Each structure stands twice: as structure tokens, then as C-alpha cells.
Amino acid sequence: QVQLVESGGGLVQAGGSLRLSCAASGSIFQINAMGWYRQAPGKQRELVAIITSGGSTNYADSVKGRFTISRDNAKNTVYLQMNSLKPEDTAVYYCNKAPPQYNWWGQGTQVTVSS
Length: 115
Description:
mainly beta; 0% helix; 6-stranded mixed β-sheet; 10 strands
């Protein structure tokens, strides 16, 4: 089982920024596409950003222009830079493969955006 550890969440005001980190236990980013997902209370988990092994990226329409996914293969870490945060971005954020591997889900990191 690959261990993924998310960090960087917190409480921020609307319009603020956060950078989330996802540290992986192995060199999986060389061969696997990775994604950031989020889940708000009472809602389905949704995919918000993807970065492929080839470096291409894709984003949910709701975050385009505000979020940027990147990776550092040497550190086995994926990042999500979140700018211009909105209260609607409030959720627990998770990283995983894309498509996700069920047993790779970690604890996530809470992002709360106040009005």
C-alpha cells in the first residue's frame, strides 16, 4: 500500500492563498498520473486537478484560473497552489492516483475559507 500524506490546509479568508502538499512513500510520480480531490460535508468527492506522468494538467471548471497542480519528482511530492480562494472551496482535500486507488486514500487536509 502506498502512503500519501496531505498537508498545508488551514483557515483562510476569502481571496487568500494556500499551498497543499502531497508526499508519497515511493517514486510513483514517475509512472502514475496524480490528482487532487476534495469532499465537502454531505457532498460527493470530486476531482479538482490532475497532473499526468507526461506533465500535462487538467482542472475542474470551478477552479480553473485559480488552482495550479505541480510536482517535484525528486521529492515524490505533488502540490496544489490555491489562489483567490472562495468559501465554496471549503472541503477536505485529498491526493490519489488518477483514476484513484481505493486503498491509497489518506486522511486529507482541511481547507476552510471564511467569508
